[in-house]
Amino acid sequence: MSITHEQTNGNSIQALPSQVEVAVIGAGFSGLATARTLLRAGFDDIVVLERGTDVGGTWRDNDYPGCACDVPSHLYSFSFAPNPEWSSTFSGQPEIQDYIRRVARDEGLLPLVRFGAAVENAAWDEDDRRWTIETARGTLTARHLIAAGGPLSAPAIPEVPGLGSFPGKLMHSAAWDHDHDLSGERVAVIGTGASAIQFVPAIRPEVSRLHLFQRTAPWVMPRPDRQLTRVERRLYRRFPVLQHAMRNAISWAREAFALPMLHPSLARLVRLHGLRHLRKQIPDPALREKVTPDYLPGCKRILISNDYLPSLAKPNVEVIAAGLAEVRGSTVVGADGSEREVDTIIFGTGFHVTDLPIADRIHGRGGRTLADYWDGSLRAHRGTTVAGFPNLFFVLGPNTGTGHTSVLLMAEAQAAYVARALRHLRSQGHGTVEVTPEAEARWNDELQRRMRGTVWTSGGCQSWYLDRNGRNTTLWPDFGFRFRQAVRRFDPAEHSFTPAAVPALPQPEPAAA
Ligand code: NAP
User: Fold this and answer.
1) Distance 156 CA to ligand 1 centre (A)
2) Ligand 1: residues whose CB is within 6 Å?
3) Atom 45 of ligand 1 has which residue's CA nearest to it?
4) What is the pLDDT of residue 485?
5) Is residue 3 in a domain?
6) DSSP H or E segment with residue 40
7) What is the model's pLDDT at position 506?
8) In this structure, are 276 and 420 located in the same domain?
């Protein structure tokens, strides 16, 4: 793949090295946090392999109209790079993307990034004890491979009969075509998740008709957003400790949001709150009934919005309480048999999360792929290391997602854990590290035990948190601080190691003349 300077937003295009100590996949929040942490820990032979032409990961790709974060900005930012300039309590995508770019530049991370270097294959070489990584820009080897591509990186479009012959425009929320003019169009929106509830009110005023295919109604709560005042911004600039205190206060307050997820009896109270919001926002009882969820809040991600529900009552919007079943020419057909002719179909249908495409491309010992090892149920030790895959680390790996707090807290803690592991290897003269199957099994058995009785498994819904085997392999089933505790120390007893240098074999005595 060849890329130009313009395509990388002016970021310089560096040659791909042939070998490095650490290769990080992904220059989104988690990949950048990892690179920064490792640099500070004394590992400077790093390359960050980025498939795109800019940093930002999911925040670069998801630039659909109305895209914003539903976690407060003071918390949804790096602990090491507070941003006193946030314009509101919940920032929009452009501001977040600018923030990521700025941090990457200010922290000196851009020179590490190789843009357009999508990882196509990575195989563990048992003899060399290195990873051979094939990218779209060539091949390199690395002692350590860190998968930080994140769970929301591969957009999912459902397989619907007839979709291939739809004559109009198709797009996914994570690949918005801003050159496509929606004004006056008849649009079908598929899905009512976190993305759709943001772009539906944003595009609604310009389209002529919006047919919303709602397979499952989401729980929507009020969005307590407000502009930050100039005085607040000045105070945060002048006294960073204030912003730090605010971040901590938000972080601890958000931990309480985990309670109804861990104890579904409390989710009933959240349900009452959601019903009140519904009553306030949708006066029409028939429409309200159509969009009232029939499962407990938290079972799927709880959404926050003040303009989504009211937009459903607008005259140019129709809620079809069914999934998309088929496409016949330019007609979309719902599972309830309803047919609508449209110009454009927009998929807000989420991502391949429990069937991560990268799992097919990473081959561990014996050439076995991660996908084969996982067999539909992702698992790693402390969300990070996988038995049979030496020197491979995940950041935001299995069971590190959160529905209640900022996932960046998890990513930073995990990046520090990886740095601890690598420092241990260096100090002990080890060349490889691999989690023991026993430690991995113990960790995951305990996670699954804790999943029982949570709202995710007993809340009465099907969600992307659950994999094809019905296991929740995406979320962390506890308070965020407990995860940070769990990765605070790298425990050598849970791992096996091999020496860095292969001991020289004794040389045979020269034969006597
Ligand atoms: P999502 O939550 O996975 O939602 C996908 C939607 O598509 C669901 O409503 C799903 O219905 C629907 N769907 C799938 N196939 C369908 C079909 N054949 N017919 C009709 N509907 C279909 O995806 P997302 O909204 O992109 O959000 C994904 C994640 O991204 C979120 O959970 C969140 O973690 C993150 N996100 C975060 C923010 C933020 O503010 N921080 C914003 C956007 C996204 P079912 O519910 O019936 O499966």
Assistant:
1) 10
2) 68-71, 152, 158, 173, 190-196, 213, 215-216, 301, 323-324, 348-351, 464
3) 216
4) 98
5) no
6) helix 29-40
7) 61
8) no
CA of 8 to the centre of ligand 1 (A): 29
pLDDT of residue 7: 62
Burial of 337 (0-12, 13-18, 19+ CB in 10 A): exposed
Q: Which of 205, 204, 196 is nearest to 346 (CA)?
A: 196
Expressed in angstroms and rounded, the spacing between residue 304 Cα and the centre of ligand 1 is: 14
Q: For position 513, what pLDDT does the model report?
A: 38
Same-domain pairing of 187 and 211: yes
The last residue of a domain, from among 304, 325, 347: 347
Q: Which amino acid would we find at residue 29? A: F
- CATH code at 472? 3.50.50.60
CA of 213, closest atom in ligand 1: 20
Same domain, 67 and 188: no
For atom 19 of ligand 1, which residue has the closest CA?
A: 323
How would DSSP label each residue in 221-259? E-----BPPHHHHHHHHH-HHHHHHHHHHHHHHHHGGGH
Task: Show the tokens assigned to 370.
Answer: 């991660």
User: Residue 3: what pLDDT?
Assistant: 61
The protein residue with its alpha carbon nearest to ligand 1, atom 39, reads: 69
Q: Are residues 57 and 103 in the same domain?
A: yes
What is the pairing mode between strands 324-328 and 119-125?
unpaired
Which pTM was predicted? 0.95
**Ligand 1, closest atom to CA 152?**
30
Which parts of the chain have pLDDT scores under 50? 512-513
Structural domain harbouring 426: 18-154+352-499
Structure-block tokens of residue 242: 């204030």
Q: Which atom of ligand 1 is nearest to the CA of 215?
A: 47
Ligand 1 center to 348 CA (angstroms): 6
* Nearest CA residue ID for atom 12, ligand 1: 191
DSSP string for residues in 424-457 = HHHHHTEEEEEE-HHHHHHHHHHHHHHHTTSHHH
Q: Whose CA is nearest to atom 3 of ligand 1?
A: 350
| Domain assignment of residue 240, yes or no | no
Phi, psi of 300 (to 5 degrees): -110, 165
> Taking a C-beta distance cutoff of 8 angstroms, is the pair 422, 22 a contact?
yes
Report the nearest atom of ligand 1 relative to the CA of 325: 18
Domain tally for the chain?
Answer: 2
Q: Which atom of ligand 1 is nearest to the CA of 324?
A: 19
Distance 214 CA to ligand 1 centre (A): 11
Of 347, 379, 400, the last residue of a domain is 347
Going by the DSSP 8-state scheme, the letter that residue 385 receives in this structure is B
HSE of 346, CA atoms in CB hemisphere, 13 A: 32
Ligand 1: residue of 69, 152, 166, 215 to mutate (most ligand atoms within 8 A of CB) is 215
Token pair for 507: 């040389």
CB count in 10 Å sphere of residue 403: 20
